[in-house]
Design goal:
By secondary structure, the protein is mainly alpha-helical. The protein has one domain (about 10-130). Helix content is about 75%, strand content about 0%. Helix 1 packs antiparallel against helix 4 (about 100-130). The longest helix is centred in the N-terminal third of the chain and has 32 residues, at about 10-40.
Length: about 150
């Protein structure tokens, strides 16, 4: 009886996916509103705040495909755990940062973690559906894209 667990039903996959996606997206949505205020409270000026945010978007753009390939090699679950660990490290860096350069480092670490998480979450329903009873492959379905 030890081995691979039975495949999940389509309804179970959908519930789990939306639960993880909602939790992950809500955290990012909350941070988007207060993050510039946090940076301002730490002494950054408007140019520095904008450049820190630009670094995040540049790193996510540049690393999206390479981290996706890495996730294909190591597995989605491990990629998500690695991405979450990197994001936790970034938040710890944010907590102790009081200078511009440390915020750039924290933002870079956060962006790398984000690319690992987004890729793992984005491919999860498609891969899980191909292994589920009743195989969804070929069906038209849409899923939200987690943007953080």
């Amino acid at each position: 009886m030890h081995g691979r667990p039975a495949p999940l039903s389509a309804a179970s996959i959908v519930r789990r996916y939306y639960g993880v996606w909602l939790t992950y997206s809500l955290a990012g949505g909350f941070l988007a509103g207060v993050y510039p205020l946090f940076l301002r409270s730490r002494g950054l000026n408007q140019f520095e705040i904008n450049s820190v945010l630009a670094v995040y978007f540049a790193v996510t753009f540049l690393l999206d495909v390479p981290t996706g390939a890495f996730a294909d090699a190591i597995g989605r679950r491990l990629a998500y755990v690695l991405g979450s660990a990197l994001r936790c490290l970034a938040f710890a860096l944010y907590f102790v940062s009081h200078v511009y350069v440390l915020f750039l480092v924290a933002e870079t670490v956060d962006a790398v973690g984000t690319t690992f998480c987004n890729g793992a979450i984005g491919t999860w329903p498609t891969c899980a559906a191909s292994r589920s009873p009743g195989n969804w492959r070929g069906r038209s379905h849409s899923s939200p894209s987690p943007v953080t």
